[in-house]
Amino acid sequence: MGLLDLVALGLRAAQFVFAIITLGLTGYAAHWYNTFSLYGSSPSRINFLIFASVWTLLSLLYLTLTPRFVPSAAHKLAIFALDAVTMIFWFAGWVALAVFKDNLALCGGRVCHVVTAAIVFGAFEWFFFLVTTILAALHVWRTRDTGITAPEKHTAAGVTTV
Predict the structure, then answer these.
(1) Distance, C-alpha 14 to centroid of its chain
(2) What are the residues whose beta carbons fall under 8 Å from the beta carbon of 90, sequence distance 6 or more?
(3) How far apart are CA 61 and CA 127, in angstroms?
(4) DSSP labels for 66-100?
């Protein structure tokens, strides 16, 4: 396994860990809003980041396991599309939550710090998916005229390195 393969595997591991962290943070914030807030239910921006976290965990199953164990099902365009869609979800989620937090008249206490942490972890998650989307796009571009549909044989974590 080459250095770039290890970097790609590290990116997938970071995506997994940050999705779990963001899921916990946004889950706490949603619980706080549902229990203690006058709004009655958690804001849709928090709920969207919960969705993005769960989507990420499910997509990472495909992105990491399929190229290794079922390479015939690991189409390069599917990997690129899944990375790109997940990247867009994270960008939309952390930006929407940041705008929501910025527009709150009163934001104090633990839940405000939790939402801030969720925004930061969401931004890092977006960046990680930006990098893996670029790597997947480079693989699609490099193999555009070859008829290759699957990632290269020695690909780490569903990301073909340059």
Answers:
(1) 10
(2) 52, 56, 122, 125, 126, 129
(3) 19
(4) HHHH-GGG--HHHHHHHHHHHHHHHHHHHHHHHHH
